[in-house]
Amino acid sequence: MLRKLGWAGLGTAAAVSTAGFAWSVWEMYRALGAPRARIRPYAAGSPNYWGGTFRNAEPAVPFSARQAPDLFFAIVLRGNTGAPSREVPLAVPLAPAAAAELAASWLGHSSVLVEVDGFRVLTDPVWSERVSPSSRLGPRRMHPVPVKVSQLQQIDAVVISHDHYDHLDRRTIRELVRLQPAPFVVPLGVGSHLRAWGVPVERIIELDWNQDVTIGDLTVTCTPARHFSGRGLARNVTLWSSWVLRGPRHSVFFGGDTGYTDRFSEVGEKYGPFDLTLLPIGAYSEQWPDVHMTPEEAVQTHCVLNGTPSNGVLLPIHWGTFNLGFHPWAEPIVRLMQAKEAQSVRSVVPMPGQRVDLLKPLPRNEWWLGVS
Fold first, then answer.
1. Count of alpha carbons within 13 Å of 297, Cβ hemisphere only?
2. 143 in a structural domain
3. pLDDT tens-digit map of 61-120
4. Residue 48: which residues within 8 A CB-CB, separation 6 or more?
5. 79 CB contacts (<8 Å, ≥6 apart)?
6. How do beta strands 242-246 and 157-159 pair?
7. Interhelix angle 295-306/331-343, nearest 10 degrees
8. DSSP 65-108
């Protein structure tokens, strides 16, 4: 009898294990998004698309096969490099009933709740624990999300820069569809992922570089970036972009994820100067110098976009939340503070969850010094 129960127990465990494995595979498959064939009809008409892929205005090499061994050993040997030595502090999120003239709440990585002329725009929302097609593998969050999706005030638009997992998260998208009425404004091809995940077609707005859409008195413009895309083996079948958010009185530039490009001078001439620039400063490496900014390049980009360092405020993003590079946790912000002082650039560095009103005196708390 005991032998029979033992075999039954093993059978049950095997069934549970098989079911769990099958669910993990299905989860990963769904997270990949739309296949190339479904994306192509939305991308094929773009002047930035030829030969089946999108291209940067300036050639960029994000990663080559020859670098694979070096990259593998760098990941294996980095240990705790890139992780904070202490708990990252969170601010209590403050959300007034009405959106401000100009404010921003950094929610971690590239997720920012921007308030501009009474509108709320959420950028690159990622609430998952890992940035990966799997909930069990991949880079893990180094601090909790400071606010639940269900606690957000009503949003007027969700803006996505590109389809990498640390910027486009299936679980978060589906939760926003359920809880928020806002449209999703995305680069060409990314809408195919959203449609595959059940986002209503009428809530998806796909734009090419230099195209825009008006939401009330807010104009959202898709602008160039220097990066790449891909959620599986296929690379660059969807577009990547930066974004300009313009209200009647104020304007914001959201860099998303990008390396430095001379195209930013054109963006500055056409749409600048900006009251606020949200620019990436982390996950840079000698392995991929063209597609991620260094902190010094973020300061340079701010100056190019604004014509002069004294215009606008720089708020750094794409650092401190996920360990995606090989530098120490605080290195990006330390280098940024040195570079911005040398150029007399105004900046603000909110802790995760902190809301900053850009029309009031800027906070000067160097909170990261107690973390590294």
1. 21
2. yes
3. 776 556 556 655 555 556 678 999 999 999 998 889 999 999 999 999 999 999 999 999
4. 54, 55, 57, 208, 209, 239
5. none
6. unpaired
7. 40
8. GGGHHHHHHHHHH-TTTTS-SSPPP-PPP---SS--SEEEEEEE
pTM metric for this prediction: 0.92
The tokens of 101 are what?
A: 């003239």
Give me 173's structure tokens: 């998208």
Instruction: State pLDDT tens for residues 10-41.
Output: 555 454 456 556 757 878 888 999 999 999 99
In a domain, 33, yes or no: no
CATH of residue 216: 3.60.15.10
Of residues 226 and 3, more confidence is placed in 226
* Number of domains making up the chain: 1
Domain-located, residue 54:
no
- Which range marks the domain in which residue 341 is found? 102-357
Q: Name the token pair of 305.
A: 């976009």
45: its two tokens: 């008409």
For residue 287, which amino acid is it? Q
| Residue 286: how many other CB atoms lie within 10 Å | 9
- Provide DSSP, 296-364: HHHHHHHHHHHSSTTSSEEEEES-SSS--SSS-TTHHHHHHHHHHHHHT--B--PPTT-EEETTSPPP-
| Residue 48 falls inside a structural domain | no
**In this structure, what token pair is assigned to residue 355?**
């809301």
Q: Which two tokens stand for residue 224?
A: 């160039």
**Which helix (H) or strand (E) covers residue 206, if one does?**
strand 204-207
